[in-house]
């Protein structure tokens, strides 16, 4: 196999993304947007894990990546995390990418693209801006279908629930469309 034929991701990468998907499932169960992240040290051990907690924490910065970075920084007793890898189920936003750059994360791997707020190429390319004193290696698409389906299912369920509530509110007696008035 030629060097250019080397697969982009190996079994350890897939296992790390599956751990991030497990975190995303916890977010889903908590009613949060299902995004999960894990941080691996240079030896491949998980030193941080997190899922979206913005609603639970009443904190707009409690994205999965930030939660995982905080755990990793505490585990390493340092805010700088050189050489670590962060796996996240959704392309990071500008805030999260900025935190990863400040932490000197060596590698970021994401699952699904985020065409609305993605900062790793979809909307912005924060990770590779030439004027920054640090760039982070970023690749995407690992288990993208699974990561994307979890998000689509969450929002499909949320829209369905909102529609049912709207229809119930529209009923004259407030009893809903399937109930006798």
Automatic annotation (TrEMBL):
Q: Which InterPro entries match?
A: APOBEC/CMP_deaminase_Zn-bd, CMP_dCMP_dom, Cytidine_deaminase-like, tRNA_aden_deaminase
Cofactors needed by this protein, per the record, are:
Zn(2+)
**From what superkingdom does this record's organism come?**
Bacteria
Recorded GO molecular functions are: tRNA-specific adenosine-34 deaminase activity; zinc ion binding
Catalysed reactions, as listed in the record: adenosine(34) in tRNA + H2O + H(+) = inosine(34) in tRNA + NH4(+)
Q: How does it assemble?
A: Homodimer.
Q: NCBIfam families given for it?
A: PRK10860.1
- This chain's protein is named tRNA-specific adenosine deaminase
Protein species of origin: Pollutimonas bauzanensis
């Amino acid at each position: 196999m030629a060097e250019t034929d080397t697969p982009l991701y190996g079994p350890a990468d897939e296992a790390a993304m599956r751990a991030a998907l497990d975190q995303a499932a916890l977010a889903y169960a908590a009613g949060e947007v299902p995004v999960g992240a894990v941080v691996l040290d240079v030896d491949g051990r998980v030193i941080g894990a997190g899922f979206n907690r913005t609603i639970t924490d009443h904190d707009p910065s409690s994205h999965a990546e930030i939660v995982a970075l905080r755990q990793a920084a505490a585990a390493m007793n340092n805010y700088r995390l050189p050489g670590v890898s962060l796996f996240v189920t959704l392309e990071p936003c500008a805030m999260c990418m900025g935190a990863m750059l400040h932490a000197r994360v060596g590698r970021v791997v994401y699952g699904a693209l985020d065409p609305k707020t993605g900062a790793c190429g979809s909307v912005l390319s924060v990770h590779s801006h030439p004027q920054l004193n640090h760039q982070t290696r970023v690749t995407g698409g690992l288990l993208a279908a699974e990561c994307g389906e979890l998000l689509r299912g969450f929002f499909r369920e949320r829209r369905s629930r909102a529609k049912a509530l709207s229809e119930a509110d529209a009923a004259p007696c407030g009893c809903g469309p399937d109930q006798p008035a």
